[in-house]
Design a protein that fits this description.
Radius of gyration: 21 Å
CATH class: Alpha Beta
Number of helices: 14
Number of domains: 1
Number of strands: 7
Strand order of the largest sheet: 3-2-1-7
Largest sheet: 4 strands, parallel
Structural class: alpha/beta
Order of helices and strands: HEHEHEHHEEEHEHHHHHHHH
CATH topology: Rossmann fold
Distance between the termini: 56 Å
Shape: globular
Amino acid sequence: MSASKPTFGPDVLRIDAAEAADRIARWIAEQVLGRLRRRGAVVALSGGVDSSVVAALCARALGPHRVLALLMPERESDPESLRLAELVASSLGIRTVTEDITPILDAAGCYQRRDDAIRQVVPEYGPGFKSKLVLPSSATGQLPLFYLVVESPSGVQKRVRLPLDAYLGIVAATSMKQRTRKQMEYYHADRLHYAVAGTPNRLEYDQGFFVKNGDGAADIKPIAHLYKSQVYQLAHALGIPAEITSRTPTTDTYPMPQTQEEFYFSLPYAKIDLCLYGLNHGVSPRDVAAAIGVEPHEAERVYEAILRKRAATRYQHEPALLVEPVPQVG
């Protein structure tokens, strides 16, 4: 009698976290000290689990004295993010520098340009208003069109569908935040002769959840091969504070509180992880549906959404294009 086929579920993402941490730490040391010939690493600490894990891995690989944690709040950041970033830096024994990027963003017109774009659809938007972008769930079958949620000073909320021009204007202005942070990371990396460590996990890297030449820029990306669920396993193995591992992932980009699920992934990370793994490994939508508690046709829609987003964001992974190769430096 043949053995029954193993049930597809969260266990497919289970890793030996201690072994993975040691292997990644060795790789970081080889790349930073060997290939890149840098003296240490700069990590932008956001108070989230991804940057906390990367900081811990760098500290293990290079020693805490060779890691600089850069904290970069701005006037629309959640103060809790700064507190949690300070908490993890203290727990790892790494140095911190805090750079408030609000004056740079103000001078560049980040907030003004974004608000001007919002006023294309909400003319009354002004001082005291808050906003965020949201997506419908991938499993609903709705077109993946962004909606704008605004909240008036009196607390009244309304949701409007965004025309393309307004959406692009909001995103272009808001992306100044990530690009300004990256500028500060490379300033400190240059002055210390350090490398910049990026913090995307596999889900973010695959689905283009980053700003080109912003948070997508880095010298090393130590966890880009790991699904978000696996990053949490590493976090527990590395002793990341529970306040961080129990916190719902957020973007901390817009004035209103915003989860990564409602902004970009449209499903909780544990479910979208299984969908991405299933798609990558040829698992049928029916088996994925049973694992995440949806109907098979809904899982098919998630597969389609992943493929659409992967294709739409391919540009973000492209290096600068050359007319002819330059083999002497390539």
